[in-house]
Every structure is written in C-alpha cells, then in structure tokens.
C-alpha cells in the first residue's frame, strides 16, 4: 500500500462486513455532538478498523471525525496552517440516502486553513456560527482567497451542475474531480486541497481520518 500524498487516490479497500460494522457501531454509539443537522461519535473504532486493513506505516494519526449529516459541506480545507508536513485525509463513505452523493476535490490548495468558504449562506436571526473558521464577509468564496492554481476561468459545467446549490460565479477559478461517495471505497487526498460535498437527498454517514506523513 503506497499512499502518495500529493495525488488523490480512490481505492476499494473495505468489505461489505466492514461497512456494516462501522454503520452498526455508529448507530449504537452515544453521540458527543448533535447540532446543526450533524451527529458525531468518536472515530476510534473506525480508525482501528481502517488501520487493520491499510498499512499506514510512515503516517502519524492526527485526528478524525465520524459523522452523519444532512447539509452538504461547504468548500473547505482541513489542514491547519500550524500543522507541519503533508496532511493526508482519508474519507470513508459508509451510508447515504437516495442518490449517491459525491465529494468534489478541487485542484486548488489553501495553506492558511482550516477554512470554510460560506458562499452565499446567510445567517438567520439569532443563529450562531459554530466555528470561527467558517468565514463569511470578504472571503466567502475560494477565488477571493489566497488559493493556488486559480484557473482564471469559470468552473466546468459538469462540476457546476453537481454544486448548483451555489452561484456559479462563486466557483470561479476552481477545477477538479468528483468522487462518488461509494461505500467500500476510500478517498485519499492532501489536506490542503479544497473539497466540498454535492447535494444530499438525506442523511449521509462517513468517517474522515487525518494523518501526517512522518
Ligand atoms: Fe474535509
């Protein structure tokens, strides 16, 4: 198993039993957080299961999330600017409702994160923003930030269509690839890459593990 940090990979690594065990563990666990349409449980069981399948020698665990959510994730980066070295993010699809969603991984990177571009989201009265990394205001979409590899062009139509809950102008200068949220697959990418989820028909359950290359 050779994980190349800078290159996005999608590999079929988990069996149906693994997926069922992960889902059962999630459903049986007591969530530590249940806000904003998101339910989270501790990722430890998922971490040990994945590490028993994938050889992660040379990678050091730095964190993860085991989550079910109903709202698509806005474009964001996971890597913390203080984190030295290359961060490798593994996204492990487990369950979804209705049409199979996708994870769009953009070619563009951002090194001043973590950061979430809130796009045209408007705060409702009394609503509190949960994370101070959720930015609105002057850098509310990626092209306004100091991102790498800006194309200087409108996003390609097939990606715009998958992300049509956002105004197309707010996806300007982005390029990338859409990866199906297919249970059994593991999607691996560099933590500085901007990524976002496509529209959801209902709850989606996934596990994210983050490692730094030793
Ligand atoms: Fe992420």
Structure description:
- There is one protein chain.
- The protein has 214 residues and is α+β, with helices and mostly antiparallel strands.
- It has a single domain (9-213), classed as Jelly Rolls, CATH 2.60.120.
- The chain has helices at 16-28, 44-53, 157-162, and strands at 9-12, 33-35, 38-41, 59-69, 76-77, 87-95, 102-109, 115-117, 134-135, 176-180, 185-190, 193-197, 204-213.
- The strands form three sheets. It has a seven-stranded antiparallel sheet.
- β2 (33-35) and β3 form a beta hairpin.
- The protein is globular and about 45 Å long.
- The mean pLDDT is 90.
Helices, strands, pairings?
Elements: E1 9-12, H1 16-28, E2 33-35, E3 38-41, H2 44-53, E4 59-69, E5 76-77, E6 87-95, E7 102-109, E8 115-117, E9 134-135, H3 157-162, E10 176-180, E11 185-190, E12 193-197, E13 204-213
Parallel strand pairs: 8-9
Antiparallel strand pairs: 1-11, 2-3, 3-4, 4-13, 5-8, 6-11, 6-13, 7-10, 7-12
Bound molecules: fe (ii) ion (FE2).
């Amino acid at each position: 198993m050779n994980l190349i940090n800078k290159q996005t990979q999608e590999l079929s690594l988990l069996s149906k039993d693994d997926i069922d065990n992960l889902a059962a563990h999630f459903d049986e666990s007591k969530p530590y957080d249940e806000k904003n349409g998101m339910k989270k449980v501790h990722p430890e069981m998922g971490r040990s299961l994945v590490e028993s399948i994938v050889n992660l020698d040379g990678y050091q665990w730095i964190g993860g999330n085991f989550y079910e959510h109903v709202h698509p994730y806005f474009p964001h980066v996971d890597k913390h600017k203080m984190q030295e070295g290359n961060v490798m993010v593994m996204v492990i699809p487990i369950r979804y409702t209705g049409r199979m969603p996708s994870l769009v991984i953009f070619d563009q990177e951002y090194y001043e994160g973590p950061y979430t571009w809130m796009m045209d989201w408007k705060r409702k009265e009394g609503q509190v923003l949960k994370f101070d990394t959720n930015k609105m205001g002057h850098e509310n979409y990626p092209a306004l930030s100091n991102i790498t590899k800006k194309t200087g062009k409108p996003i390609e139509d097939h990606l715009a269509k998958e992300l049509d809950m956002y105004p197309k102008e707010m996806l300007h200068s982005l390029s990338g690839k859409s990866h199906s949220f297919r249970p059994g697959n593991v999607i691996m990418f560099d933590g500085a890459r901007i990524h976002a989820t496509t529209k959801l028909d209902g709850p989606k359950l996934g596990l994210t593990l983050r490692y730094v290359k030793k």
